[in-house]
């Protein structure tokens, strides 16, 4: 594996290797020294064209725990905001000897483009409405550690699938790992051709779901007539207490964050024992360590 | 003036003939002073006419100029091109169209026929001075806001009506703007997978349907630019069956490439309208053979490197086309030279009102013609292009047929496959 | 022209030899550690792990003492990571009592360049601060590249650099045996 651009880059055995490696990385959290020497002398650049403190910090922690040197290159206050092209930025990073570039970008496919211009590895940390593969990996990791398996799980992904890179990556990865995915939301927000099951009725899906993944719904979608009002959205597709109680006892509730409490998820649900939202953050560091190790830990 | 004798050329009709090019026309009589070109095995076509070329001058001379675009056209077998109006400043006044016309004559490689904008600044709000452009030295007959759709139905109706006074035609870029906000590629499975905002086929089809009804209502000519969907073909087929005076063009790239190309995220494949599905490609090919689509037009759209070597969403749409169009037509239609002459020379010349072009190769006709080697194969190398830009989507592809020579009013613009100047 | 491997492989230790050696090292540990108090065995994967378990088992049999056994995966501490494709990371298991203040005995099958042990010392250091660290190996084949020696050696086997030593154990390979292979079979 040279780059991680899409969840479709991962076959079942590679994805499982990432999850297994992440499980070993996770044990580090309980140790005296929370650092490994593995990537000493390697340089990881976090190239962020969108504000995402959570994702950047997660990658930064992952790289630092593996002893890599980390350079944070954010679009704000840099040459990027002065109109430097992605290609010129890529050549700059190349000259600085970046072994890996972790890129967050508002344009779908920007990591693919970058990978054609740099010699090092490229990790997609979220591109436009395309993909966010490390999020899907940490979600899969969380499901596996909570429920013990992935094959055969029924996973409902609920909300604005159309604009969600998290949903796309999850659909691909979960299919690879043998879970059954159902997309749930208003028809305006569910692309018809993602080759997975679709339902417009959340209540019908809940009793058989092992996992419910709530996606963030941006209020500005209302302006483009994807749905009439926040209230109607919450009533039809929000996960509130009564709905949560229709889930099987073992079922978990996930959210990639940041949440709109009261919109797609009620506070009662977000704070319940079923919620894995805080775990997802912790697992994110382990999974990203695994990804960086598998990309950079061997012969380049 | 040099005389040429093209010996043993095959005509579109299939006959073989010696063609004497003398004093700007196809002549008979003594060829003793003529330079002889062995045309054995070559096909002579009437000079190709492109209804849809972006020459970028004035405004983006870094991407193309009238001269470099003309040279690319001549190398592609063209003797006339219609230069689109979306320059900077926009070709929406007699002054700008005359400038482009004059630059074309000065370059002297093809006849550059300016297209005038329908609306001031392509803004879609009020009509440009269509009459002034029509009576200018450029004698504009085609008007188009290409790049933008004349979306306002009342404005479109008025434009269709108004140009009847000078036998003009409105060439519509059919794209319902509200249905294509932020659109990046064909709406479908590939767009969903790539997370790129979709450009639905219905956004094109709805405008064509509306426009054929408007054209029918006011009894005007309508030309539809770069038809790209199977649904559009059906709308056109029905309109033509009813007798609506509508003509349509298809680009080489829509006849060959599909939306799967976007998988690389290489913006060289970004174009407007976008590359569609294989089913659309098949429907377009069939429509072109049947005549539901009248013309192959290139939509040659040069772009500077920095406008393509970037993120897909930030890249400008468009592809080079002049130097590869004939090869792709041969690839798609086969060596049906009469059909190729019809779709790429006679019909476009008629639509554009270019009286000196699109004539059969016979005595007395203007000597606008091109010689093609049908047996040649070539690998497309972007760095070979005469265009100032490099954004060909065919890089590395092997294409059939090659232009050997082109003559504009009897003067060679291309000889031995190379531009004369 | 490579001959069939069997022709060049030489058996050095039989299953019985291995059993006797494990018994002997278990006795030596008991002797040298004065009864194995506060001692933790750490097997280095792959074959150090079953060896460590056997040693613990023998010590329990001889003296009725339970010596905790851990697993110390050294993959992430190797100094040759960049020489090949990324290796899968195995589990590291630390007994509940931890390593702080304990006498740790690292257990591996073959001692060769010493680089594995160097990596294991680094890995161990990140788990805590043992009182002391010792090393037990089934075979010492020489050719050290680092200043490292074993405290308990099953058998010293002089080898050429071009040769290789393969340890097979029942738990991992179906049967116990140690073989020496000539260079031309590698």
CATH architecture of the largest domain in chain A: 3-Layer(aba) Sandwich
General form of chain A: globular
Briefly, what CATH class of the largest domain in chain A? Alpha Beta
- How many strand units of chain C? 8
Going by CATH, the architecture of chain C would be 3-Layer(aba) Sandwich
Percent of residues in helices of chain C comes to 25-40%
Brief overview, please?
The complex is a heterotrimer of chains A (300), B (421) and C (186). By secondary structure, chain B is α/β, with parallel strands linked by helices.
Describe the fold and architecture.
The complex is a heterotrimer of chains A (300), B (421) and C (186). With 300 residues, chain A is of the alpha/beta class. Chain A is built from eleven helices and nine strands. Chain A folds into two domains: 141 residues, 3-Layer(aba) Sandwich (Rossmann fold); 145 residues, Aspartate/ornithine carbamoyltransferase (Rossmann fold, 3-Layer(aba) Sandwich), CATH 3.40.50.1370. In chain A, α6 links the parallel β5 and β6. Chain A is globular and about 55 Å long. Chain A starts with 11 loop residues before the first helix and ends with a helix. The model of chain A has no long low-confidence stretch (mean pLDDT 93). With 421 residues, chain B is an alpha/beta fold. Chain B has one domain: Metal-dependent hydrolases (TIM Barrel, Alpha-Beta Barrel), CATH 3.20.20. In chain B, β6, α1 and β7 form a beta-alpha-beta unit. In chain B, α4 crosses α6, α6 packs parallel to α7 and α7 runs parallel beside α9. With 186 residues, chain C is an alpha/beta fold. Chain C contains five helices and eight strands, in the order αβαβαββαβββαβ. In chain C, α2 crosses α3. Chain C starts with a helix and ends in a 5-residue tail after the last strand. The model of chain C has no long low-confidence stretch (mean pLDDT 92). Classes of the chains: A alpha/beta (300), B alpha/beta (421), C alpha/beta (186). Chains A and C meet through α1 and α11 of A and α4 of C. Chain C: One of its GO terms (molecular function) is uracil phosphoribosyltransferase activity. Chain C: Keywords: Glycosyltransferase, Transcription, Transcription regulation, Transferase. Chain C: Pfam families: Pribosyltran. Chain C: InterPro entries: PRTase-like, PRTase_dom, PyrR, PyrR_bifunctional. Chain C: It catalyses: UMP + diphosphate = 5-phospho-alpha-D-ribose 1-diphosphate + uracil.
């Amino acid at each position: 594996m040279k780059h991680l651009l899409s969840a479709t880059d991962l076959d079942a055995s590679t994805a499982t290797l990432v999850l297994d490696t992440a499980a070993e990385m996770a044990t580090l959290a309980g140790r005296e020294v929370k650092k490994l020497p593995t990537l000493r002398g390697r340089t990881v650049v976090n190239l962020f064209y969108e504000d995402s403190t959570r994702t950047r910090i997660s990658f930064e922690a992952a790289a630092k725990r593996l002893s890599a040197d980390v350079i944070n290159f954010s679009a704000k206050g840099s040459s990027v905001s002065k109109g430097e092209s992605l290609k010129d930025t890529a050549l700059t990073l190349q000259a600085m000897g970046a072994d890996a570039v972790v890129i967050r970008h508002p344009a779908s496919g920007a990591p693919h483009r970058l990978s054609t211009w740099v010699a090092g590895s490229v990790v997609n940390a979220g591109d436009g409405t395309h993909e966010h593969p490390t999020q899907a990996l940490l979600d899969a990791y969380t499901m596996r550690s909570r429920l013990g398996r992935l094959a055969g799980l029924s996973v409902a992904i609920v909300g604005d699938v159309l604009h969600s890179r998290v949903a796309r990556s999850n659909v691909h990865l979960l299919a690879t790992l043998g879970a059954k995915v159902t997309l749930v939301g208003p028809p305006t927000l569910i692309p018809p051709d993602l080759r997975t099951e679709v339902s417009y009725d959340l209540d019908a899906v809940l009793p058989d779901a092992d996992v419910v993944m709530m996606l963030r719904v941006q209020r500005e979608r209302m302006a483009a007539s994807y749905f009439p009002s926040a209230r109607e959205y919450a009533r039809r597709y929000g996960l509130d207490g009564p709905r949560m109680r229709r889930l099987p006892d073992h079922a978990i509730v996930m959210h990639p964050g940041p949440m709109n409490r009261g919109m797609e998820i009620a506070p009662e649900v977000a704070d319940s024992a079923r919620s894995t939202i805080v775990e997802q953050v912790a697992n994110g560091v382990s999974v990203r360590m695994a990804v960086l190790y598998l990309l950079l830990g061997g012969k380049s | 003036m040099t005389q040429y004798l093209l010996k043993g050329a095959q005509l579109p009709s299939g006959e073989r003939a010696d063609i004497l090019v003398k004093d700007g026309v196809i002549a008979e009589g003594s060829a003793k002073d003529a330079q002889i070109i062995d045309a054995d095995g070559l096909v002579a076509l009437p000079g190709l006419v492109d209804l849809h070329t972006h020459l970028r001058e004035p405004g983006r001379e870094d991407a193309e100029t009238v001269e470099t675009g003309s040279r690319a056209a001549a190398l592609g077998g063209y003797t006339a091109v219609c230069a689109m109006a979306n320059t900077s400043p926009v070709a929406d006044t007699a002054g700008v169209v005359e400038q482009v016309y004059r630059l074309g004559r000065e370059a002297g490689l093809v006849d550059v026929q300016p297209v005038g904008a329908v609306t001031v600044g392509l803004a879609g709000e009020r009509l440009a001075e269509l009459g002034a452009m029509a009576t200018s030295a450029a004698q504009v007959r085609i008007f188009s806001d290409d790049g933008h759709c004349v979306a306002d139905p009342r404005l479109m109706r008025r434009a269709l009506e108004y140009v009847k006074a000078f036998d003009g035609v409105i060439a519509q870029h059919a794209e319902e703007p509200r249905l294509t906000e932020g659109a990046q590629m064909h709406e479908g499975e590939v767009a969903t997978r790539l997370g790129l905002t979709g450009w639905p086929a219905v956004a094109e089809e709805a405008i064509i349907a509306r426009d054929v009804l408007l054209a029918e209502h006011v009894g005007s000519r309508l030309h539809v630019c770069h038809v790209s969907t199977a649904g559009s073909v059906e709308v056109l087929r029905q309109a033509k069956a009813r007798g609506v005076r509508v003509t349509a063009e298809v680009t080489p790239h829509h006849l060959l490439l599909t939306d799967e190309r976007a998988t690389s995220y290489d913006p060289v494949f970004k174009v407007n309208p976008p590359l569609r599905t294989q089913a659309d490609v098949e429907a377009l090919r069939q429509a072109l053979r049947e005549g539901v689509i009248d013309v192959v037009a290139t939509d040659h759209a040069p772009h500077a490197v920095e406008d393509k070597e970037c993120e897909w969403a930030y890249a400008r749409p468009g592809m080079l086309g002049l130097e590869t169009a004939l090869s792709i037509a041969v690839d798609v239609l086969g060596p049906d030279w009469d059909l190729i002459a019809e779709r790429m020379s006679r019909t476009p010349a008629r639509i554009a009102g270019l009286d000196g072009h699109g004539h059969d190769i016979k005595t007395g006709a203007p000597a606008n013609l091109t010689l093609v080697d049908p047996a040649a194969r070539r690998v497309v190398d972007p760095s070979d292009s005469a265009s100032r830009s490099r954004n060909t989507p065919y890089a590395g592809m092997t294409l059939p047929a090659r232009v050997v020579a082109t003559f504009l009013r009897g003067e060679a613009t291309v000889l031995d496959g190379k531009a004369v100047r | 022209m490579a001959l069939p491997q069997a022709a060049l492989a030489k058996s050095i230790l039989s299953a019985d030899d291995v059993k006797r050696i494990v018994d002997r090292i278990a006795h030596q540990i008991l002797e040298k550690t004065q009864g194995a108090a506060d001692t933790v065995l750490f097997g280095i994967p792959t074959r150090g792990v079953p060896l460590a378990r056997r040693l613990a088992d023998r010590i329990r049999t001889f003296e009725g003492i339970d010596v905790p056994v851990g697993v110390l995966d050294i993959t992430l501490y190797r100094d040759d990571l960049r020489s090949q494709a990324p290796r899968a990371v195995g589990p590291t298991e630390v007994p509940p009592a931890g390593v702080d203040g304990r006498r740790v005995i690292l257990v591996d099958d073959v001692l060769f360049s010493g680089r594995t042990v160097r990596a294991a010392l680094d890995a161990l250091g990140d788990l805590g601060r043992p009182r002391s660290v010792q090393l037990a190996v089934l075979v010492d084949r020489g050719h050290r590249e680092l200043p490292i020696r074993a405290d308990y050696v099953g058998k010293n086997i002089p080898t050429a650099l071009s040769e290789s030593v393969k340890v097979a154990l029942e738990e991992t390979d179906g049967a116990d045996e140690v073989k020496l292979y000539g260079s031309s079979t590698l």
